[in-house]
Write a structure and sequence with these properties.
This protein is of the alpha/beta class. The chain contains 15 helices and 19 strands. The strands form five sheets. The protein has a five-stranded parallel sheet, sandwiched between helices. A five-stranded mixed sheet has the order 9-7-6-12-11, with helices on both faces. It has a five-stranded mixed sheet with strand order 14-15-13-18-19, sandwiched between helices. The radius of gyration is 33 Å and the shape is elongated. It starts with a strand and ends in a 5-residue tail after the last strand.
Length: 490
């Protein structure tokens, strides 16, 4: 079967020259002087290849290529853009338009023939193609306007999301601007956005409801569904992820709504997209709507998803950088500098509201002997395991830090010394029972612990820490592997 090739060129001379060459090669050649005639022939004749000049009036080669590639009826047709332009930017636009090849006029005819043969040999007959025999009823002008409008919309969206990057360090402003932008371009009854920040303990999904009030139980179910979708991406990495949800400040008040949603199954359209960067979770977006036809045509939605991912990547990278500045690299606990900052804040808050605040300091018993006997690598392993157990034993609202050497310390807000001793004693027992092995022998590791509570007569945080350290010293003096409470000396 003779393969049809469509040549599109407003120069009759160049068109005729190329036509004669291709006909000698055995191809059936179709001709079009402009983009509008070309698109009609594409739908009427279904050519095997389109070879188009770039520089043409009205609809240029880039526009024609976009029109062909954006329609599922014609997107399979290879497009070769033919031009005298040889700047990198010209090839860039050609490839962005969806061109399969970019060929410069004046190059060897054999090179062009080779490109054509490659596409011909790769192509298979598409039995699903529907040819339009009556093109007089087909509004090609509207299709051209549509693709140009879509390009403008995508370009505008890109700029809007790029502007958001300026506010990634301020959560309040970022949230307000992000949800304002998304609500202006997306239809939803419920919008959810999650951005994962390494330096933040709380992992929050921000919800915004629109056009209807949504029951708390439904919001909880939505949160669980989003969590499941994220975890499914990487069960091993994300199985411990615990998400909470919060309504945005911009969310409409429920008295504004005439309808309500009391069952998650009332959402007939659902679109959940987790975002990853180099194997790490950086965020997610989810859209829910009662209309079953939403999010079927995702062209603009996909553009939004792509741009949002880029902004969340920037926000995540900032959080990673911040995390590195506040975390001890060996233990992955907070470092001493960040501990001091948090303690100052919690100490002032405790004094202002007369709320309980406790400190717990841990020292690994005989740590120098462990290092001398089994090596510093084993000592590091012990320190890492103990640090992990310490962190696991406390709440998300507590702060655990490496205070120095083998000393660890925790801030326990809203916690009395009587309340603190329960998880700390449990921790002491876990460490004593922990299996440490070195050269096929079990090594026992214990810790001494001092706990103190803010008595509201400490003149500074230094005095508070000193009292905790004194309690730790007493635990060491009394035989180690025990807890001493500073309150005993009051």
């Amino acid at each position: 079967m003779t393969q049809k090739i469509l040549i599109v060129d407003d120069s009759k001379t160049q068109c005729l020259t190329l036509k004669l060459k291709l006909e000698k090669k055995g191809y059936e050649v179709l001709e079009a002087e402009n983009g509008m005639d070309a698109i009609r022939l594409v739908y009427e004749k279904n050519p095997a290849i389109v070879i188009s000049d770039v520089l043409m009036p009205n609809i240029n080669g880039y526009h024609l290529c976009r029109l062909i590639k954006r329609d599922k009826l014609t997107s399979h047709i290879p497009v070769i853009l033919l031009t005298v332009l040889d700047k990198k930017i010209d090839k860039f636009w050609g490839l962005r338009a969806g061109a399969d090849a970019f060929f410069c006029k004046g190059a060897s005819d054999d090179e062009l023939y080779a490109i054509i043969e490659k596409f011909i040999s790769q192509s298979q007959k598409n039995t699903d193609i529907t040819l339009i025999t009556d093109t007089t009823q087909y509004d090609f002008t509207s299709k051209v306007a549509e693709i140009l409008d879509e390009s403008l919309v995508k370009s505008t969206l890109t700029n809007e999301f790029r502007d958001l990057a300026e506010f990634v360090l301020d959560d309040k402003i970022f949230n307000r601007k992000l949800f304002s932008l998304l609500s202006s371009i997306l239809d939803y009854n419920l919008l959810a956005v999650f951005y994962n920040e390494s330096d933040k303990k709380d992992k929050i999904i921000y919800f915004e409801q629109n056009e209807c009030d949504i029951d708390a139980e439904v919001l909880q179910n939505v949160k669980d569904r989003i969590s499941a979708k994220i975890i499914a991406c990487n069960v091993e990495a994300y199985s411990n992820l615990r998400l909470e949800y919060k309504m945005t400040e911009t969310s409409s008040n429920e008295e504004d709504f005439e309808e309500s949603i009391s069952d998650i199954n009332e959402f007939k359209s659902e679109y959940i997209v987790p975002f990853e960067n180099e194997g790490k979770l950086i965020g997610a977006i989810a859209l829910f709507h009662k209309d079953s036809s939403k999010y079927v045509n995702k062209s603009i939605v996909d553009t939004i998803i792509s741009e949002l991912k880029m902004v969340l990547k920037i926000k995540w990278l900032y959080s990673e950088t911040k995390l590195l500045s506040i975390v001890d690299p060996l233990t992955q606990l907070y470092n001493r500098r960040y501990f001091q900052q948090v303690l100052e804040k919690e100490f002032l808050r405790s004094n202002r509201y007369s709320s309980p605040l406790s400190l717990a300091m841990i020292d690994i018993d005989n740590f120098k002997q462990l290092n001398d006997t089994f090596g510093h690598q084993f000592g590091d392993e012990v320190l890492q395991v103990v640090s992990g157990l310490f962190k696991e034993s406390l709440r998300k609202t507590d702060y655990v830090a490496r205070y120095g050497g083998e000393e660890l310390i925790a801030i326990l807000p809203e916690t009395s010394i009587e309340q603190a001793i329960i998880p700390i004693e449990r921790l002491r027992c876990r460490i004593a029972d922990q299996m440490f092995m070195r050269e096929f022998q079990r090594v026992n590791v214990t810790v001494s612990i001092g706990i103190s509570q803010n008595t509201f007569d400490f003149v500074s945080t230094d005095a508070f820490i000193k009292e905790t350290d004194n309690a730790l010293y007493e635990a060491k003096e009394k035989g180690k592997n025990r807890i001493e409470l500073a309150i005993k000396r009051k």
